[in-house]
Amino acid sequence: MSEPLLIANGLSKSFGGLKALSDVSLTVERGEILGIVGPNGAGKSVLINLVTKFYAPTSGTLQFAGEDATSLSRLQMARTGVARTFQNIRLFKRMTVLENVLVADPETAVSPFRSAVFRKSRLDRAIALLDLMRLTKLADQVAGSLPYGAARRLEIARALATGPKLLLLDEPAAGMNEEETAALVEDIGKARQRVDGILLVEHDMSLIRALSTRLVALIAGMKVAEGSVESVLSDPQVIEAYLGPDDDAPAAERIAA
Amino acid sequence: MIAGQIVNGLMVGGLYALVAVGLTLIVGVLHRINFAHTEVFMVGGFVGLVIAQAVPSLPLAMVGAFFVGGILGIVVERISFRNLNSEEASITAALSSLAVGLLMLDLVHHIWGTEPISFPLVNALGSGSFQLFGVRFVPVQGLVLALTLVLVLVLYFVIEKTHTGRNIRAVSDNATAAALLGIPVKFVGQQVFFITSALAAVAGLMFALRVGTVNSDIGITFALKALAVIAIGGMGNLWGAVVGGLLVGLMEAMAVHFGFGRLAELVVWGFMIIVLLVRPQGLFGSVFHGAGARA
Amino acid sequence: MSSDLLLLTTINILMAWSVYIALSAGALTFGASAFMAIGCYVAGILTVKAGLPMLPACFLGAAASGILGFAFGFPALRVRGIYLILTTLGITMSMVVILENIDFVGGTVGLGGMSGATVWHGVGAVLVVGAALWWVSKSPLQRVLDAVREDDEVAASLGLNVVFVKLTAFAVGSAVAGFAGGLYGHYITFVRPDAFNVLISIYAVMFVILGGTNNFWGAALGASIMTILPEQVQVMREWRPTVFALTIIVLLLVRPQGLITKRFLTIRLARKTS
User: Fold this and answer.
1) Does C90 touch chain B (CB under 8 A)?
2) Is B102 close to C256, i.e. CB distance below 8 A?
3) Which of B64, B101, B239, C21 has its CA 20 to 30 A from that of B56?
4) How many structural domains comprise chain A?
5) pLDDT tens, residue by residue, B145-185
6) Which residues have CB under 8 Å from B84's CB, separation 6+?
7) Which residue range forms the structural domain that includes residue A51?
8) Each residue of B113-124: pLDDT tens digit?
9) Would you state the pLDDT for residue B291?
10) pLDDT value at position A16?
11) Distance of residue B104 Cα from the nearest chain C Cα, in angstroms
12) Size of the A and C interface in Cβ pairs below 8 Å
């Protein structure tokens, strides 16, 4: 039995007086897709930011692939095998789709100056990733002019290009319609084969249900439920948080939809 | 005499403060750096020169400098700072104001040449000195110190207690929200530029009075240090600019007193660099403005 | 066009490129003047007091600038944006004062006795640096620079060593300014510290702003225009700072991205697979 990919223990984050995350502990096991659900402001993005060191935790520890990761920098986290996408899409808008994927190649990223002299880049690898995310036709298009769905796929492709063990997806279905979301399920399924584990923060229940092997629910910065998808989504606290303090069965079914 | 040096340092610091207050206010309210500010300071002396050559009256020269400075401020605002929107625009605005400053410098050079010109009102305050608390003052030092105090207090009063000040503070917090509340953001911007530039020009006149000459160099050789002052005091922080200015003036005076001579200049910039590294939000700054500082 | 003017143009192009190189990693600095001074003085000392030939002295001057660029850059690049501008301004202002206080290099009186720079040195330098920039622009390094410049937080999260990239770009830019300084000194034969004032740094930045910040041709174009054009028109020659300032002001209002805005792609899939 191999050790979990990611262990977060007692993670807390305060901004001034505001407690965004309180004492959250969770694990991501190898091979699983851990879904994180919760209403807006629950701290889901804060969690991703803490794991990827965009924020420093106020308290708590992190372990990644068996090693202590609490004091690693953003760069170090990336290099040990953690990659992420962004809720508000942060592509390199002035570069093309292909360039976005190429720049994330560890060979280039780790030795940028040597790569200038030897001018090698692993084009095949990049093209394979573009094919995977159905982006090949858009390879030479400037990332800033991509349609929304393609931009999200590029974020995933770029994150995959770093060859990560753990992929963190921050609301990848935000702003997508049903058709796009269904396609995204497939795309993430393909991505899953390339990594050891995925942490999926998402609002869209259909995506969560289709992909998550396990679920964690965050409300107001605290973990309130953890377990199988069904058990978490039928937890009364979770239902109440999403729909207000109403206890009718039809409401529960609405989450299930 | 160390006491004399201290007085001088405070006076110079007061002038730094007058320039820095303007710079920091524009950072605080409009989130921009006005690089033309230092040249408006320089122009103040020349305005005083023009007036003094016609009518040898110091009060008139000060009033003239005040208003011409204010108008120049509005011109700078119109040219360089109209777009208040994006983050990128702040670099564009800064560079544009830099160019406007350069323009002012060249115009002054063409009209008055590059050599310092003797300032006719240099003896307007009399040539005697007076004693206060056992320290010898020269009248202009007293005037500058008093004026700095008065102007800063007036500025504080305007910002904290008046309607205009309330608008300025609202725009400073959130320009979009202020606009939605019906506050004329563009007009507030103009007001801020007028006030700050007017003060800078008066400070430039004071400087000319103290030194006895009007000099086109002083924007770069003197007022530019106000940039260091606002970084030290905290960008956007009024008291930081005042205390920072006085502190810098004192530091320079002490450096001179202890024999550093021209290296006193280094003290200012070196101190600024240290502050930026150790406490990027400045001595008085809140983390908000300094937040963008750390890479 | 006189060879003097051409040499000056090449020196200005190098200065513009020094700003451009750091800017290509996202660091807008006003320190070009300080590093030009270092290169000039180091090269000058080596030729005047140690008898070295000009070219090796200039290279050593460039190396000194580069090393000091690394040293200054390390703390300086901890801050960004306007704070970096202020820090590099501080370095520029301080450099003049420091040099004025070093009697070994002549203090305020200055350093003289340098000679030997010809227009061919300038042209050669431009060709070499230009070729290097062209080489980089087609390489994976360009993508790294663009990523760091556009969004260095995301770049770090992808495993790019942002600090190292910025620092190296800053140091290389400083070295180029240093070489330009060496050439300048050996052309003009006598320098004083106040020749390396803040206006030099400001002009260097403005060359790049004018020409366009997205590729190295822009910087060269901006420097060339602002050096050559005023010489052709009498009025412009006398009013050079005004003309320059007005150009920048109008440009920033009308076309803030500069004259040449094209970002040249580093790679095109279509071409590769056809």
Assistant:
1) yes
2) no
3) B101
4) 1
5) 888 888 888 888 888 888 888 888 888 777 778 888 888 88
6) B30, B32, B175, B185, B189
7) 6-90+166-256
8) 989 998 887 666
9) 41
10) 78
11) 8
12) 114
Residue C228: other Cβ atoms inside 10 A? 15
A163 has a chain C CB within 8 A of its CB: no
Strand partners, B140: none
A166-170 and A82-84 as β-strands: parallel, antiparallel, unpaired?
Answer: parallel
Q: What is this model's ipTM? A: 0.88
Whether residue A96 lies within 8 A of chain C, CB to CB, comes out as: yes
Q: Is B96 in Cβ contact with C252 (below 8 Å)?
A: yes
Partners of B266 on chain C (C-beta within 8 Å) are 94, 97-98
- H or E element, residue A226: strand A222-227
In sequence order, which residues have a C-beta less than 8 Å from that of residue B153 and are 6 or more positions away?
Answer: none
pLDDT digits (tens, 9 = 90+) for B241-295: 989 999 999 999 998 888 887 788 888 888 988 888 888 778 887 665 444 444 4
Residue to test with chain B: of C29, C165, C252, most B Cβ within 10 A: C252
In a domain? residue A213: yes
CATH number assigned to the domain comprising residue A76: 3.40.50.300
Domain assignment present for residue A99? The answer is: no
- B260: nearest CA partner in chain C: C101
Minimal Cβ distance to A102: which of C140, C162, C165:
C140
pLDDT at C113: 84
**Cα separation of B144 and B208, whole Å?**
11
Residue C68, judged by CB atoms within 10 A of its CB (0-12, 13-18, 19+), counts as: buried
Structure tokens at B274: 């240290």
Q: What is the pTM of this model?
A: 0.89
Domains of chain B by residue range? 20-226
Closest CA to B62 of B174, B203, B222, B227: B203
Residues of C in contact with A95 (CB under 8 A): 143, 146-147, 150
Kindly state whether residue A131 falls inside one of the protein's structural domains. no
What are chain B's partners, defined as 3 or more CB pairs within 8 angstroms? Answer: C
Distance from CA of A179 to the nearest CA of C (A): 29
Minimal Cβ distance to C147: which of A83, A92, A159: A92
Helix (H) or strand (E) holding C112: strand C111-112
Query: Strand, coil or helix: what is B113?
Result: coil
In tens, the pLDDT along C18-30 reads: 999 999 999 999 9
In a domain, A240, yes or no: yes
Exposure on the CB side of residue A72, measured as CA atoms within 13 A: 24
CB of C202 less than 8 A from some CB of B? yes
- How far apart CA A158 and CA A126 sit, in angstroms, is 9
